[in-house]
Write a structure and sequence with these properties.
With 261 residues, the chain is mostly helical. The protein contains 12 helices and 2 strands, in the order ααααααααααββαα. A hairpin with an 8-residue loop joins strand 1 and strand 2. It starts with 15 loop residues before the first helix and ends with a helix.
Length: 261
C-alpha cells in the first residue's frame, strides 16, 4: 500500500544556525540521557519543536528523544574539523537519501530539488523554503559539493489582506519602494519566538507550551509557570473557554436594540 502524505516523514526546517548551536551546547555540556524540553529550556517552544524534528529525521534521537550512536559520534567529533565534516556527511546523506532519490547532487536543478522535497519531504510554502535552506546549509557544513543550480525557493509573499491585517509590508511592497525584500530570519518567520525567548530568559520559572492546530502553520503557544498544577491548568482551561465563548457569542435581540438606540 502506498504511503499517504500524512504518514510521510517531515524533513527538517529549523534554522541551521540554531541547530548547530544546540549541537555545540551538547558538546560542551555532555550528552543528556534524553533530549527533552528541559535540555532546551532557553529556546522558544517553536525552536524546540523544529530542532526535535531535525534530530528525529537525521536519526540523531529515537522517537523518545534518546540520543543514538550517530549523535554520540557527531558530538564527540565537534570541533574536530575534518572529523566533524565526515561524521556530519554520513548523517546528512544517509537521512536525505530517500528524499532526493534520483536527483543528481552534481548537476541537478533547483526545480528538481524542490520537487523532491515537496513529493518526499512533506513540506510546502514557506516551510519548503526553510527546509531546502537547512539541507543546503547541512551540505556546505559537511563539505559536500553540490550543484550550483541548487537554491531555496522564494518565500511565498502574503496577500494584500494578510498584509493589512499584519500591519507590515510584504516583499512586493518593499521592491516597489526601491528596497530589496529582506531575508527573513527565524524570528521573523515566527514573530513571537524572539519575544518569547527574551521572556524565558527574564522569567526562568515560566516556560512556553506549544502545540499545533490543523488550520495554523505556526504552533500555538501558551506561557505558564513551570510549577503549575493540574488543578491550575483546569482553571486556565475554564477561563479560556469562557472567554472564547463570550468573544464569539452573538448579541441578543435586546442588546442589539440598545446598541441601535
Amino acid at each position: 500500500m502506498a504511503e499517504s502524505k500524512s504518514q510521510k516523514t517531515t524533513v527538517p526546517y529549523a534554522a541551521w544556525k540554531s541547530f548547530v548551536t544546540f549541537l555545540a551546547r551538547l558538546a560542551e555540556m555532555g550528552l543528556p540521557q534524553k533530549v527533552d524540553r528541559t535540555v532546551m529550556s532557553k529556546m522558544s517552544g517553536a525552536t524546540q519543536s523544529n530542532i526535535r524534528v531535525a534530530l528525529s529525521f537525521l536519526k540523531l534521537t529515537d522517537s523518545d528523544g534518546v540520543p543514538t550512536d550517530a549523535l554520540k559520534t557527531l558530538v564527540a567529533k565537534h570541533g574536530d574539523g575534518e572529523g566533524w565534516k565526515a561524521a556530519l556527511r554520513d548523517v546528512v546523506l544517509g537521512a536525505y537519501e530517500p528524499v532526493i532519490a534520483g536527483l543528481s547532487l552534481e548537476n541537478g536543478t533547483a526545480d528538481q530539488l524542490w520537487k523532491c522535497f515537496r513529493d518526499n519531504g512533506n513540506v510546502r510554502g514557506s516551510t519548503l523554503s526553510r527546509a531546502v535552506r537547512f539541507f543546503l546549509a547541512a551540505l556546505r557544513a559537511a563539505g559536500v559539493k553540490h550543484s550550483r543550480y541548487f537554491k531555496a525557493p522564494t518565500r511565498p509573499r502574503p496577500t494584500k489582506g494578510k498584509q493589512e491585517a499584519d500591519g507590515r509590508p510584504d516583499g512586493l511592497e518593499a521592491s516597489r519602494a526601491g528596497k530589496p525584500a529582506p531575508e527573513l530570519k527565524e524570528e521573523q518567520a515566527d514573530p513571537n519566538s524572539a519575544k518569547q525567548r527574551q521572556q524565558d530568559q527574564l522569567r526562568p520559572d515560566w516556560r512556553s507550551h506549544s502545540f499545533y492546530l490543523p488550520t495554523y502553520k505556526n504552533p500555538v503557544e501558551v506561557r505558564a509557570p513551570t510549577a503549575i498544577t493540574q488543578e491550575e491548568w483546569e482553571l486556565v482551561n475554564v477561563f479560556m473557554t469562557g472567554t472564547i465563548r463570550l468573544a464569539t457569542q452573538k448579541p441578543s435581540p435586546s442588546e442589539s436594540a440598545e446598541d441601535e438606540g
